[in-house]
Each structure stands twice: as C-alpha cells, then as structure tokens.
Design a protein that fits this description.
6-stranded parallel β-sheet; globular; 3 domains; Rossmann fold
Length: about 575
C-alpha cells in the first residue's frame, strides 16, 4: 500500500517501528476511524493480524498471546464504546503484569464535546489500569521522528517492570482511507530511523545477599513459589532447593510443577497440608522465602498472614504484593538471579527437613488421588494431569478450576505451562485468552467453569474462524459452584437465585452453532483419551457435575489428607 497522506505516513512509520522492536501479533476490530492504523498493520508482512468482531474478546485474546510470548501484543479499535470494551482486559493485564498496547482511534479535537457521533471522552479512559496513557498528536509531516519514538516508548513502557498495558489514543482527521491528498508528503522526515530498547534487571546488593544467607542458613526454611511465569525460574528455584535441602511449595502458576527440571523438592499439596494444620506441627518452618505473587491457596495465604512470628522474606522485582502484611523483609531483585546467588552462599538445612515435607507430600497426594471418583471436579483435574500432552499450555479459569488445579494437579515430567488470568481473578475473557495463547504457537487446553464459558461464549466463534488447536474442557455444574463453599449457602431462601444462578444452557447446541466438535464425557478413560489426543481444530469437552455434591467431595479429600 502506497503511503498517500499524512495519516498513513504516520501510522506506517509507527507500525514499522513496532515491527522492528519485535511486535508480531495485532488484534483488529472493524471500524472507520481506526482505518489508518488497521490498514498499516494489515499491510505489514511481519505482523499477523487477528480480526475480531468483539473488542472485549479481542483484548483478552491479545492478553493470552502476550502472556504466552512475554512480549507486547497490540489491539486496535475504533472510537466510542468500542474503546471502552478494552477496559476489563486492561485491568487484568495491569494486575497480572502482561504487556499490551491498546491503540484506540478517536475523533480530532474539533469534533469532541460538540455532539459528533461516536465521540466520547477517551482521555485516560482506563484510569490507573494503564501504565501510561498518551494522547497522540494528530498526524503532521513536521513531526519527524515522533512516530518511531512513540512506538519505542510505548513498547518499553509495556515491558518495563512491572509489565502492563499502555494506552495510546490516536485522533485522526479525514480522509481515513489511503487516498491521495494534494500537498501531503509521503512520510515525516526521519520517521524511518531505527529505534532500540534494551531492558535491564535489578540485582541484589552483595552485602544484603550475604545477610539473608546468614539468616536462612542451616535453618528449617520453607521456599514458597507463588504465581511467577519467568523463563529459567523453575530451574533456578529447583537448584536452590536441592542445594540447600529445602522444600519448595509450588503454586501451579509458578511453572515448577511440570517440566524436565529437578522436581525432587517440589511440594504440590501445600494447600491441603495447610488446611489440615500440618504447617503448625511437624512441617512448621523457622523462616519462609516467598517468590512472586501471593499463592492461589487461601489456606496457605492465611497461614502466612497469621504467623507474623515466622520471618518471611519476599522476593519481588516490582510493586508490593503482600496482602497479609506478613513480609518481614521485602527484597527488590530479579528472582532468577536471587535464587542462583543464594544457592552459592546458603548452608544446607537439617537433612530431615526436606525429607519430612517430601514424605508428607507423597502421602497426601496418594490419599487425595485415592479419594477421587470421576466425573467429580477434582477427578477431572487429576485425569487432566495424567493425560495432557507434552509441550501444551494449560489455560485455567478462575473460581473453582484454578483452586482444584492447585490442590489436585500433581508434579509431572511433561513440559506443561500453566497460565491463568489471576491478576484481577475474574472469569471474563478466559476462552479468548486461551485462543490468544494458541495463536502464539502452541496447542492449548482450556479448563473452564460453565459460567466462564457462558461469559465468553462468542469466543467459540473466533475459535472456529481461526481454526486454532484448542481443547476447551467445561466443567458444567449448572451455575456458580464455588459459592456453595461460602457461608451464604446456609441461607437457601435467596442462595440459589442470587448465587447458584442455574442457567440450563445446552453446550452441545452452542458448539453446533459455531461448528465446533463437542463431546459429553462421563468416563475417565474416554476423557483421558480425548485430552491426550492432539487436535488441529477447536473442540469442546463437557463434563457434568453436581454443585452440592462437590462440597462433600472436597471435604472427603481434606479428611483423607488429615488422616495421612
């Protein structure tokens, strides 16, 4: 496409700079005002454009792709409420530290506040959810290097710790099509000069490292790995645990439970063991080192908050994630580097410390598994863990699915990366996020509750259009199963209508509507066969369970661990 006017000269330079920085994916939604951006992206051979009808779904799709690739993905919308639809994904991206570029088209200044159609106030539209907002200058040939510099700054800001979403608002005047405008130059002077961004990491002061090493050496130290998706962290944390003879309680989102790293000291039953009081008896630590965000397990998080007498050292490279105010030392440093350096200075714990944890974990896992009967919700997770293929991304829904994965997904040797939208812990956009992960290049299995699927049902249409290799597992208990674990469940007058919220949806019909393969599964063997079978197109596996029985099934599992 020939650059024919100032709008296209500007956006082509901007897109070219992003491509040079490493942008490979963009989600585009239809509109007129965003045409200069959409056409520029579509014209670039190095960027894959994913066309969406739904802006909200497009943003979550981009979030899933960005979480998977660990680099920014762009979203392009037209003006008005189309731009507002990006807000839920912006909130999730900010809290889960996912780099996004939210690019919204806008009316020029003279068309705002005068009753022009599709003109709303888009300035700082996403509030504190955006790491940085910039109202872009209207394109002008005299802006020189501004488009490329803007692209570089947006890219860098999205990636700088903590990573997150950047919002750029582009006001375009007519013409919005790539038509020739007499007098316009083809490109701003200097617009094509290359720009670079070189990220850095925070290293701990050697004296501080030595002090921490003395504090934890030869003590019953417990390592806790919360949600932390960083390359090389599993290897570094596992090596530290082995070198110092320390147990490491691994949240499913720590990436420590699956893979070919040393998993000898990885503990996967931290939540059940905390529930039954083992942290206060033979497994009580003298000091805790926590990496990453607070754990998925509420029982473990509560134990940390309630035991201020136990020194707790938190390793965080940005922000202050300590909801229980339990950290006695907050260490601002790169977690991979810290784990490697601490392994060089720490003295090993007593030999029986890690052994006690490993034995407890083994027995608890055996008792948990022995208490499960398919098709219960915990049994679905156990069967999924047994069957999921190597080099697969498991995208897990919030609410009950991630909690069941925390308790019932054991350590496995297959390279499975577990992702979840746990920044804001919402159910919105799960299917779209899983599709975005698949778009980034790996087979994906999505574990969803029925309400999560209902909330993002139109994403099945996108899955069919794109033909992505995604297996969606929906646990259908006809409503909000997690609410049965709350005190509100004891008030039946309003519980079922306000919290249980049965919906009666026929997911077979929904799959047929979008032309997606559907399987209603009742046996473990059929379920594991389907999950273990590679797919080249989207499919939906439905498992039906009972909400009320689910509480009793979990209680039975915790009793089995208590009897360990």
């Amino acid at each position: 496409m020939k650059r024919t006017n100032r709008n296209y000269a500007f956006t082509t330079a901007f897109v070219e700079a992003l491509a040079g920085l490493g942008l490979r994916h963009v989600c585009i939604t239809p509109g007129s005002r965003n045409s200069p951006l959409a056409f520029a992206f579509a014209d670039h051979p190095g960027i894959t454009d994913w066309i969406h009808h739904d802006e909200r779904s497009a943003a979550f799709f981009a979030l899933g792709a960005a979480a998977t690739t660990r680099r920014p993905v762009a979203v392009v919308t037209t003006s008005g409420t189309a731009a507002v639809e990006l807000h839920p994904a912006a909130v999730e991206a900010r809290l889960s530290r996912v780099p996004l570029l939210l690019l919204t088209a806008d009316r020029p200044p003279e068309l705002r506040d005068v009753g022009a159609p599709q003109a709303i106030d888009q300035l700082n539209l996403f509030g504190t959810a955006a790491k940085w907002f910039h109202h872009v200058a209207t394109p002008d040939p005299r802006l020189g290097r501004y488009p490329a510099t803007l692209a570089t700054r947006a890219w860098a800001t999205a990636l700088d710790l903590p990573a997150g979403p950047v919002h750029l608002n582009f006001p375009f005047r007519e013409p919005l099509a790539p038509v020739v405008v007499p007098g316009d130059v083809e490109e701003p002077s200097g617009a094509w000069e290359p720009r670079r961004y070189v990220p850095g990491r925070i290293e701990i002061d050697p004296a501080a490292l030595e002090e921490i090493g003395r504090e934890v050496s030869a003590r019953r130290t417990l390592l806790i790995a919360g949600p932390l998706d960083r390359p090389l962290f599993p290897e570094a944390a596992a090596a530290l645990a082995a070198r110092a003879r320390l147990p490491i309680v691994a949240d499913p989102l720590s990436q420590l439970r699956a893979g070919d790293h040393d998993r000898t000291h990885v503990i996967t039953t931290g939540d059940p063991l905390a529930r039954v009081g083992r942290f206060d008896t033979d497994l009580r630590p003298e000091v805790v080192i926590r990496f990453g965000a607070m754990t998925t397990s509420k029982a473990l998080a509560s134990w940390l908050a309630d035991h201020a007498e136990v020194p707790q050292i938190v390793i965080e490279e940005a922000d202050w994630r300590d909801p229980g105010a339990s950290a006695t030392t907050m260490v601002r440093t790169d977690p991979v580097s810290f784990a490697r350096q601490l392994a060089e200075v720490i003295e090993a714990a007593p030999s029986d410390w890690a052994t006690a944890w490993i034995d407890a974990d083994r027995v608890a896992r055996a008792n948990l598994t022995g208490s499960l009967v398919f098709p219960s919700e915990p049994a679905v997770v156990a069967a999924l863990a047994a069957a999921i293929p190597d080099e697969t991304i498991l995208y897990v829904g919030s609410s009950m699915p991630i909690r069941d994965v925390d308790a019932f997904f054991p350590s496995i040797d297959r390279r499975v990366r577990i992702l979840s939208n746990r920044g804001a812990n919402g159910i919105d956009g799960l299917i779209s996020s899983g599709l975005g992960a698949a778009a980034a290049g790996q087979p994906v299995v999505i574990l969803s509750g029925d309400l999560s699927l209902l909330h993002d049902l139109t994403a099945l249409g996108a899955a069919a259009r794109f033909g992505l290799p995604v297996t969606v597992i929906v646990v259908n208990n006809d409503g909000g199963g997690i609410f049965h674990f709350l005190p509100q469940a004891a008030f039946p007058k309003h519980f079922e209508r306000l919290l249980g919220t049965p919906h009666g949806t026929d997911f077979q019909a929904a799959a047929d509507l979008f032309g997606i393969e559907h399987h209603l599964v009742e046996s473990n063997s059929i379920f594991t066969t389907l999950v273990g079978m590679p797919t080249e197109s989207p499919r939906l596996i439905e498992v039906r369970t009972d909400r009320s029985e689910n509480v009793a099934i979990h209680d039975k599992a915790w009793q089995a661990v208590a009897g360990s």
